[in-house]
Amino acid sequence: MKTQDFFNILETHQDKTLQFEYTPNNFVSANYHITEVKHISVDSVDCGSQSDQWNETIVQLWESPTEVFKTKHMSVLKALGILNKVGQMKAYDMASELKFEYSNTTFHTAQLFVNDFVIQDNNLIFKLAVEKTACKAEELCGVPKTMVAENQESSCTPDGGCC
Length: 163
What we know:
It is a single chain. By secondary structure, the protein is α/β, with parallel strands linked by helices. It is built from 3 helices and 7 strands, in the order αββββαβββα. It has a 7-stranded mixed β-sheet with strand order 2-1-7-6-5-4-3, covered by helices on one side.
């Protein structure tokens, strides 16, 4: 999901509470805070020696241990206020990919992509998911579309043009 799409959804549903489902049927607790917004510029080189650049917006969610008693999630309106204040300080790249950084005592720290959103009762729920890593130079390096076995040796050779 692009940052602009996220803001559009929030603007449309300001009267809702804001929830995040980080794995199926597991939700960020009501005691969460938006603790940081990162405006990331990535400048990379892949295993096929191809360079690439893109921007990302990463919103960090943190559960306060002193507020575990909370049962009501943050309102969309409050989240918009926080995010708009950030945007006044450092402009968003609205075309950038949006991710959420999150962890708790049973879930490792991860940057999660937005797969979808749903409205349930008075809740706006963003469904988050981990995206698996992939070879970005599959064609250049000769990596088959489907690997036959997990332990299969790399198809890259020392003089094959990839790492």
